[in-house]
Amino acid sequence: MTHPWFEGARTPRVLAHRGLVAAEDAAHGVVENSFAAVAGAHSAGAEYVESDCHVTSDGVVVLFHDDDLSRVTGDARLVSAITSTELGEQMADRGGLITLAQALETFPTLRFNLDVKAEAAAVPVGRLVAPHGERVLLTSFSDQRRRTALAAAEAAARGIRPATSAGSATIGRLLAALAVRSDRLVRRALDGVDALQIPERQGRLRVLTPRLISAAHRHGVEVHVWTVNEPDDMRRLVGAGVDGVVTDRADVALRTLA
After folding, report:
1. 234 — alpha (psi -120 to 50), left (phi > 0) or beta?
2. Which pLDDT tens digit goes with each residue over 204-226?
3. What Cα–Cα distance (Å) separates residue 60 from each residue in 54, 101, 102, 257?
4. CATH 3.40.30.10 describes domain 11-164+229-256
5. Cα(43)–Cα(40) distance, rounded to whole angstroms?
6. pTM
7. Are 167 and 194 a contacting pair, CB within 8 Å?
8. Which residues are CB-neighbours of 105 under 8 A, at least 6 positions away?
9. Where are the domains of the chain?
10. Which of 36, 73, 89, 140 would give a disulfide with 145, using CB separation of 3.0 to 4.6 Å?
């Protein structure tokens, strides 16, 4: 059965990468993964927001990509070493801090694609999304973190299990299975996975191939490609059969793929 995260939404899917920061907003200091960025994606008509989860020193799950604050706020400290209050103060003139709880409550019509970035965040993320499983997809480069978050959501027993996309090890097993043309191994790699969210290439390795798209679709798994910002690339990838794009320019993608 298709997970509700995929149902009733426009296709191809446009996933707003860390929200949407328009040029005018960026000029006023708004940054990715801020309250304003999520609101910007929502206002542009995006149905999906891709974001990242870390946990602060006082146990609050926040939408933040990097392990530390240096790139976004100029503070060298780790997210895990700062309180949510301190982080909120640093984000106040950068679009505002948004916690995972706030995101889920403030934007009840958005569907979230959440990347668990830290081991300490996995269980609290799972517990927080448990009541919202029908509109959450959980992922991580680490399959262990992804599975820990899913298990925490299931243990909370408060609704539908979140959807999930494959971590790096699972994608590696899939590529190996495709290389030896073993559908049995492909099926095993994709077991329990709802989507593959991948780059076109990883260094010299071409990850996205017609064979991968075909195998994923044969087993009921969608393929989403990141990070795609040029309209020609969006059209080309959708023409090749991908089901969605993760993009910094959700506004452009929504117009291009309408």
Report:
1. alpha
2. 999 999 999 999 999 999 999 99
3. 8, 9, 11, 36
4. no
5. 5
6. 0.97
7. no
8. none
9. 11-164+229-256, 165-226
10. 140
